[in-house]
Design brief:
By secondary structure, this protein is mostly helical. It is built from eleven helices and no strands. Helices cover 58% and strands 0% of the residues.
Length: 264
Amino acid sequence: MERESDYNYISPKYIVMLIPEIEKELWKLFDAAKYKNVLRYIRRWHEYDQNWENFSIVFNSNNDIDLAETLHNMPNDILIKVAIDLGIDTPGFLPSISEFRNILKEKNENAFQSFDRALKNVSENPDEAISLANSALEGIVKSILSSGYFKNFIYNPKDTLYDLVQAILKQFKLYPVKEPELEEINNIASSLLKASKNIEDLRSTKTKTHGKSEEEYIISDSLWANFIVNSVATIGLFLVQYFNQKYNYSAKENTEIDIEEIPF
């Protein structure tokens, strides 16, 4: 479970500057019946019972939501999650997330949904966030490999992350690299492959994906989930951007992978 104090170290200046961006994005997002729809959206984040609520929803004299004051009432962790949900850049906190999320939405809806769920589980279900992030990276690699740009190449849709990344690096001719003068590139690509292998191993051995006994260790610290989700975004962004640059792949082209093919 995420410790509340973990978010108290976020700069107050950063939070105060972030709130107007969230407010602007919400008003822009809900153009029709905006007060009602913004209130409905905010209520999706609101939790309460008879004696407790996670934040207060403030209303103005017209009985419409006072969005600015409501956002200022929100705890830091919820504000960050709202910003991520709206695709707002959050530098210094889950960097690169927004860009990778947008790429997934354009190229592979199933991977996008997995990654979105991973983001929402980082704090409360770190092990599930890692498992979902692994699946999102598998999905985007499968989209690239099945795009039709690699002639005479057939991949196994049941392959897991390590085999998929190994396959894509070979198709990119990044690993193994035979030219001695490109030894550093070979080493970097090898490290990328190792990172993918360890992300897959974490998913298999340190999450509840395949079932675990009470004695077995399950990742419960959101610090590690943050690290893995960031790593997945970094690896995924590089692979997509390399593919786009080298193969002139249009962002509008969309190769969907059936959700049943992703090994959960």
